[in-house]
Amino acid sequence: MKASNFLKLKIYRRTFLAYLSIVIVFFFFIISNRYTNARIVGQQLFAEHMDRAFSRVEDELDSVIVTIDNFLIRLNGSPVLKRDFFDFFGATPAEYMAARLRSGDTTYDSYLSTCDNLVTDCKYLVRYILYYCDENIMCMEYSQEGYSRCKAIGPEEGELLCSAGYAYTRDIYQDSAYKGKISFVIDVAVPIEEAFCQKGQIAVWMEIQGEGKVLGEALDGDVGFEEVTESGRNVGLASLTASKIGKYFYAVNASEKYSYLVVAAGKASVYMQAQIKELWVLFFGMLLGFILITMICIRQFSSDSRFLQDILHSVECAMDGSFCCIEVGKRSDEYAVIASQLNGFYEYLETLIQQKYELTISQQRTQMQMLSSQLTPHFLYNTLERIRLRALRVQNMEFAHATANLGLLYRNIVKTEPVITMEKEIGITIQYLDLMSFLYDGQFLYHCDVKEELLSILTPKIWMQPIMENFFKHNFKEDASIKVIVFTGEKRGEEICFTFFDNIGYIQEKQLDYLNGRFTPEEGKKGGENMGGIGLQNVYYRLLLYYGDRVRMTIRNNTPSGVCIEVVFKEGGVVDVPAAGSG
Q1: Looking at per-residue confidence, does 52 or 354 come out higher?
Q2: pLDDT of 583
Q3: What is the predicted pLDDT for the residue at 526?
Q4: 562: alpha, beta or left, given left = phi > 0 and alpha = psi -120 to 50?
Q5: How far apart (Å, rounded) are the C-alpha atoms in residues 359 and 348?
């Protein structure tokens, strides 16, 4: 027997499924809780990493600002550089070169070479130096390799260049007279990318002066920075992680000093490696424990279920009349107590059955013979009298055939065994209806529709004919109307249903309730004990003796007219009635 057979029993199936449900819920709760903690720790590690990167960017920008300030201090402290600076400030390149030629000494350090040194000292983060003088703006552009070019630009282009990075601006005075201002445009993206983006594991969205762009190598798939574009600076951590949860960690850092916003996205798996390893160890440990406990439960359940199935099998055998003792073995639990008590109960039942079996069978045989013997005289004598009278009036040979048919019907009723096939029972009923067709010539028709699969079923004899006789006794009148009787038989699931109905007659509701009240096991037995005539109650009693409580009989008014009698019984639900000799 398979170990999983215990699942066929409700008591163990429910217990085992409840156990599985509790374990799965507990398992899921622990794992999900630990995974949530792992995510929190990973998020904290990522946030700390990003905070350090943000601090490095801030420190580097502070260093650039200090370098620029030192440059300006040096510029003011050197008369040569200061003079060269003002020659350059507000002049075109041609005018500046002419001023240097007029000075007659081109060997001293020029302001432009000092600016080149400044850009080098600032690690080429200074991309533009804008000189504002009156309406003119002179722009010195530096590449990341240190190359420079000088050009005049308009105010709009100057604003656009300043928005590309952080603009550090200082006013310019000459002899206490305001001359203009100078702006150093620092490329913030370079230190951000160097500090935040490492080995392709982090991507960064940088926003400065209302403009944003993505820095670093693209991560796998869509990181979610488009939400930053849609929401601008008012982007929180929750709104970013809503659609990307489980794959990326996010950190938002904003610099009030340098007016930029950095949103960093990193692969969650990189920052959760240690926690994930611990989670796998916990997972497999819990899984192993669950498997071991489940195997122990299955072993115990399987042992108990096999013994319980033995008990149930013995009960089923007892219901079929075959008692088999249960092997208890070495068991000493409650199941063993139940099995021992059942074994004692079976021994008691066997003794009781031996004492009462012969008496019960004898009583049933006597009752069946008495009921069968009452079926023939009532209709037989009346029928013979009608045939005789009609023969006198008509003087036709067809009546001789009717008489012979009647004799055959009588022999079938008297000579056959108490239990016959349904085919023979229907044959006897049709013989009776043929006689009634003869007697009510031109007034009566009948139709039989019984499924072929029912013909081999065993049944007590002569229970359909009294039902037909009941129609003639109560409903038929000799008038010009056509009388019709129809009886059908079919199988409905486990039940076999026979329906008998005519097209005339009507029964009051109170009378119907009374009659149906007689078709119960208690009332049916009463009718069997007082068999003063062959009525529907005696038919029900004979069926009750044979089928037991698995038969029911009802009578109702047919639609649109007539009376309907329905007999339903379950196949296989037969009380053992031994065959009697012919009567």
Answers
A1: 52
A2: 30
A3: 66
A4: left
A5: 18
List the end-to-end C-alpha distance of the chain, in Å, as a whole number: 54
Print the SS3 string covering 37-90.
HHHHHHHHHHHHHHHHHHHHHHHHHHHHHHHHHHHHHHHHHCHHHHHHHHHHCC
Cα gap 315→336, rounded to integer Å? 15
Asked if 508 and 496 count as a contact pair (C-beta separation under 8 A), the reply is no
Length of the chain: 583
- Nearest-angstrom CA–CA distance, 340 and 326: 8
pLDDT category of residue 429 using cuts at 50, 70 and 90: very high
Task: Write out the two tokens for 398.
Answer: 């067809």
pLDDT of residue 497: 95
The predicted structure's pLDDT at residue 520: 86
Q: Report the candidate in 343, 346, 315 with the shortest Cα–Cα distance to residue 329.
A: 343
DSSP, res 326: -
| 263 within 8 A of 205, measured Cβ to Cβ | yes
Q: Which of 69-78, 257-266, 302-311, 402-411 is least confident?
A: 402-411
Cα 540 to Cα 552: distance, rounded to the nearest angstrom: 8
Q: Is 250 helix (H, G, I), strand (E, B) or coil?
A: strand
Integer angstrom CA distances of residue 509 from 52, 208, 512:
96, 95, 5
Q: Residue 506 contacts by C-beta under 8 Å, 6 or more apart in sequence?
A: 557, 561, 562, 563
Q: CA 118, CA 558: separation in Å to the nearest integer?
A: 115
The token pair that represents 438 in the structure block? 């003869």
| Number of neighbours of residue 552 by Cβ within 10 angstroms | 19
pLDDT of residue 83: 84
d(CA 117, CA 74): 12
Spatial separation of the C-alpha atoms in residues 409 and 423, rounded to whole Å: 15
- Which letter does DSSP use for residue 256 in this model? T
Place of tokens 């009921």: 371
Average pLDDT, the chain: 77
CA distance 247 to 268: 5
Is 90 exceeded by the pLDDT of residue 63? Answer: yes
**Residue range 531-552: average pLDDT?**
77
What number is the average pLDDT over the span 459-471?
88
pLDDT, tens digit, 9 for 90 and up, residues 363-380: 455 455 545 555 445 565
In the DSSP assignment, the letter for residue 549 is G
Taking the C-alpha atoms of residue 552 and residue 517, their distance in angstroms, rounded to an integer, is 11
**In which element (H, E) is residue 370 found?**
helix 334-373
Regarding beta strands 166-174 and 177-186, do their DSSP bridges make them parallel or antiparallel, or are they unpaired?
antiparallel
Average pLDDT over residues 207-224: 69
Cα 88 vs. chain centroid, distance in angstroms?
80
Tokens for 399, please give them: 């009546």
Owner of token pair 């402290």: 77
Directed axis angle between helix 521-529 and helix 536-547, to 10°?
Answer: 110
